[in-house]
Design a protein that fits this description.
By secondary structure, the protein is α/β, with parallel strands linked by helices. It has a single domain, classed as TIM Barrel, CATH 3.20.20. An 8-stranded parallel β-sheet has the order 1-2-3-4-5-6-7-8. Helix 6 links the parallel strand 6 and strand 7.
């Protein structure tokens, strides 16, 4: 397959890595196998998905070289989400932007939350917004009631990873979950990635319920994207690419909704168009 493909779908969340590549100190996890871009593209092709977004794994820190290589090999098919320091230089941001990166990742799992409404963080988020980047956040669902209002003044697009990690699914009767849904209603620059339901122990039925609540809060299906989370790190024995594609099709039975989530929304948000 070439890079000049008709756009049939965008997998907006996958990782590539090599255990021999230098890793960041203090990492919580280190892979023991290779996850190559070639293998991922093969899975995508079998599923009829044409384009994709690679997300920087936390264990590589701010060394985004592996993704940059993949973007150079497949500039029409792939985009990247980088990990950068908040004080990253303008030159580095410009270089990453030119390479095909379209956002910055904040993996806040296991970390103490900071004051993201503070001047230094707001300046960082405004810089991302200024070049059309998004910030992708992975964190427990309940904490988005604080995170979304804190990021709102910057105007930066916020991508909530993995349904927002609501353990066992979203329960609107849970005050902490209801507070997040209220925050989403007031957050015009927030999007949700329908990915990795297994990371929050969601059954297919629970994921469907979560989507129903999120859809109501966001006022429709225009602010959702889908990702496989390949190669499903630390969950490799319980799922695979084809199963996640089937879960997506079950979650999005309506063809119009599926096209919106797989093509229309991510094509614009991740700058494929």
């Amino acid at each position: 397959m070439t890079d000049s493909l008709p756009m049939t779908g965008i997998d907006t969340h996958a990782h590539i890595f090599d255990p021999d590549a230098p890793m960041a100190p203090g990492r919580r996890y280190a892979p023991t196998y290779v996850a190559s871009v070639t293998s991922w593209l093969s899975h995508m092709e079998e599923a009829g998905i044409s384009h994709g977004v690679l997300v920087q794994p936390s264990f590589y820190g701010t060394d985004n070289a592996l993704i940059a290589e993949a973007l150079a090999e497949h500039p029409g098919r792939l985009r990247g989400i980088a990990v950068v320091d908040p004080d990253v230089s303008e030159a580095t941001l410009a270089r990453l932007d030119a390479q095909g990166f379209v956002g910055a990742r904040l993996n806040l799992v296991g970390r103490e939350l900071e004051d993201y409404s503070g001047a230094a963080w707001q300046a960082f988020f405004r810089r991302l917004a200024g070049i059309g980047w998004q910030v992708e956040i992975q964190r427990a669902f309940e904490d988005f009631a604080l995170l979304l209002p804190a990021l709102a003044p910057s105007g930066c697009a916020v991508m909530i990873d993995h349904f927002g990690l609501p353990q066992g699914g979203i329960d609107a009767a849970n005050p902490a979950h209801a507070a997040v849904l209220d925050a989403l209603r007031a957050a015009p620059n927030a999007w949700v990635k329908l990915s990795a339901p297994y990371r929050s122990d969601q059954s297919a039925a629970q994921a469907t319920t979560s989507l129903r609540h999120l859809r109501e809060a966001l006022g429709g299906m225009e602010r959702f994207v889908w990702g496989s989370d390949w190669p499903h790190t630390q969950h490799e024995t319980v799922t695979d690419y084809s199963e996640q594609v089937e879960r997506m099709r079950t979650l999005l039975p309506d063809p119009a909704d599926r096209r919106r989530v797989l093509v229309e929304t991510p094509a614009a948000l991740f700058r494929f168009t």
